[in-house]
Amino acid sequence: MHFDVHPLNLVIRAAVVFLAVLILLRISGKRQVGQMGATEFVAILLISNAVQNSMNGGDNSLSGGLLLAVVLILLSLGISYLTYKSRFFESIFEGTPRMLVHDGKLLEKNLKKELLSKSELRTLFRKQGIHHFNEAKSAVLEADGTLSIIRYTDLVEPQAHPKPQT
After folding, report:
1. In the 3-class helix/strand/coil scheme, how is 64-129 assigned residue by residue?
2. Which of 42-46, 65-69, 92-96 has the least mean pLDDT?
3. CATH number of 98-155
4. Structural domain boundaries of the chain?
């Protein structure tokens, strides 16, 4: 168990890289995380390779790698705990949902904020069996990148069933 770099140096490097990559991914938007295409997947792979040396600082020892893994897992758990306990941290690290369709009308301003084109949104709608925006009462891009749609047909109350006779 020999470190090529001081363990505290590794801990600080791991924390800085983890938080920097997390912030960069948050800046890139919800859609990229939830609907990762080939471009985003390649970027993630290359980012992991690019930041490896900045985290290990030249330490290629087994103990250094294990320490980095522990630090990354603890940081992930810590952020999960913070987002569970605090709405403030939840909005920072996980984001907030954004309405894209309201009363059947497309909210183009919100689409632009999410860097989502109409054709991309149409594709997401079709995947849920909806062919026109006006079929939806609302559509919300959730913080995790998934699309939640409430159809007008979902709002129709089912007919009351007669009570069984006893």
Report:
1. HHHHHHHHHHHHHHHHHHHHHHCHHHHHHHCCCCEEEEECCEECHHHHHHCCCCHHHHHHHHHHCC
2. 42-46
3. 3.30.240.20
4. 7-93, 98-155
